[in-house]
Amino acid sequence: MTRALTRQQEVKRIAEGVVAFQSIHEKLVLSSNSSQKEKLEDSLKKEIKKLQRSRDKVKAWIGSNEIKDKKPLMDQRKLIETV
Questions:
Q1: Are the C-beta atoms of 72 and 18 separated by less than 8 Å?
Q2: For residues 51 and 77, is the Cβ–Cβ distance under 8 A?
Q3: Distance CA 23, CA 58 (A)
Q4: pTM for the complete prediction?
Q5: In angstroms, rounded to a whole number, what is the distance separating the alpha carbons of residues 50 and 24?
Q6: Residues contacting residue 14 through CB under 8 Å, at least 6 positions apart
Q7: What are phi and psi of 69, to 5 degrees?
Q8: In terms of Cα–Cα distance, which of 31, 29, 80, 33 is closest to 57?
Q9: What element of type H or E holds 74?
Q10: Per-residue pLDDT tens digits for 8-61
Q11: Residue 65 gets which letter from DSSP?
């Protein structure tokens, strides 16, 4: 039960991370100030690292034999990789 809850929480974090990444990226594209661009680039790098950690967790769960239905996890992994 707690593992399923942990996976659900991770899926929620992935969704929030993708939204944050897209928002920061949009601000970066629209920004004209170089100092603001640098700050946004740093924020973007942090979000990428968070998403990469989440992807690694999902990969481990996909490789686990205890989960039977792996399609939702594979969808989350693809979502992270396509952002």
A1: no
A2: no
A3: 23
A4: 0.88
A5: 14
A6: 51, 54, 58, 76, 79, 80
A7: -90, 100
A8: 80
A9: helix 71-82
A10: 999 999 999 999 999 999 999 999 999 999 999 999 999 999 999 999 999 999
A11: S
